[in-house]
Amino acid sequence: MHKIIKTVLTYPVWVFQLFTGTKSFRDNPLIASRRLNETGLHVVRQSLAHRAAAWRRRRLKRGIPPHLLAEFDRDGFVVIRDFLPAEMFRQILEDVRQYRGEARETIQGDTVTRRIALEPCVLTRMPGVRRLLDLPLLGRLIRLAGSRDCEPLYYVQTILPHAVTGDPDPQLQFHADTFHPTVKAWFTLTETADESGPFVYVPGSHRLNPARQAWEKRMSLEAAGSGDRLSGRGSFRVDADAIAAMGYAAPRAVAVPANTLIVADTGGFHARGVSAQPGIRVEIWAYERGNPFFAPLIDLWRIRAIGRRRASVMWAFHDWLEESGFGVHVWRKRGNVGAFDRDVGGHEMLHIAPGVPGWFGQVSAHMLRRIVRR
């Protein structure tokens, strides 16, 4: 009886999630339903999301040079070498090298990723980075690729391949982040050579075609039971043969020097290139993923002063969920660390400090646990 009541109460949530960016085939039985997907649920959601993104992008093209628009429309990503004047780039590099403070780290396979959230209090210590984030062209390209007019999340990101013992990094597999257009951007602070894990993208794969939609439908029927955890959670993995069968171009590795900007629609197929040996890659990294179907009339994240605090708010929220007993927050706290540090610090994977401090966090977490257990 308890299970029936819980299902009845949860069902409206599952229905509501169909109209959002929710993508996991393991957490929502409607998204995972074989019967619904045989009739086209997944491909209809994907098609509607792409049409909505195309409509929004038509309004976000202003101020972007025509050759960059053409490059993005054709390939799904843009690459701009020597994005900044040399003096400005040196200032940014110096800002990042000197900064030490709180960061978050996670492990995927044998690779460690570290992120420092570029919130206002951090940017006061990185004036050169703040000038970069304020550049109109950067913001316009990210908004175009993500098809959403709001402030993205910005971080200093460090990639440390082969830093720990583990399985191969799952980001080495070609995949789409989700079923709809979304954006990631990299401004490189270190050189990325062919053998040093460059960004790899399948040109044109941000656009749907009949072969891609047929493949997506097949994947939607298998995803819930897939042995691949990330495919089961809606980030479909794909191999080279399947990419070729869809009629897309061969994958292109983007090996670039420092001071290069890459902005990509990561709803297209992409991967992290293989690193031949342990190394370090440091970049200013941006990310945005909103509701693919609807743009809110009032979006507080458009306000720069609020939007740039979002990363720390989200981290604190997930810390609180962990304290409440709802899963594990994979982004672990680490203090007094710099972006160029190669030491991974053991990650302190067994414990985190409270994300919502004081009595409010303790009481609210206790109340939430009691409500759910009922």
In short:
One of its GO terms (molecular function) is 2-oxoglutarate-dependent dioxygenase activity. This is Phytanoyl-CoA dioxygenase. The chain is built from 14 helices and 13 strands.
Describe this structure as you would to a colleague.
The protein is of the alpha+beta class and 374 residues long. The protein has a single domain, classed as Jelly Rolls. The chain is 38% helix and 18% strand. It is built from 14 helices and 13 strands. The chain has an 8-stranded antiparallel β-sheet, with helices on both faces. A hairpin with a 2-residue loop joins strand 2 and strand 3. Helix 5 packs across helix 7. It is globular, with a radius of gyration of 21 Å. The protein starts with a helix and ends with a helix. About 4% of the residues have low confidence.
How many structural domains are formed by the residues? 1
CATH fold type: Jelly Rolls
Q: Helical residue percent? A: 25-40%
Output the helix-strand order.
HHHHEHEEHHHEEEEHHEHEEEEHHEH
The CATH fourth-level homologous superfamily: q2cbj1_9rhob like domain
- Enumerate how many helices there are, as a single number: 14
Low-confidence runs (pLDDT<50, min 5 residues)?
A: 348-361
Q: Report the β-strand fraction as a percent range.
A: 15-25%
Instruction: Choose one word for the global shape.
Output: globular
Number of strands: 13
InterPro entries: Phytyl_CoA_dOase-like
Protein name: Phytanoyl-CoA dioxygenase
GO molecular function, one term: 2-oxoglutarate-dependent dioxygenase activity
Pfam family, one: PhyH
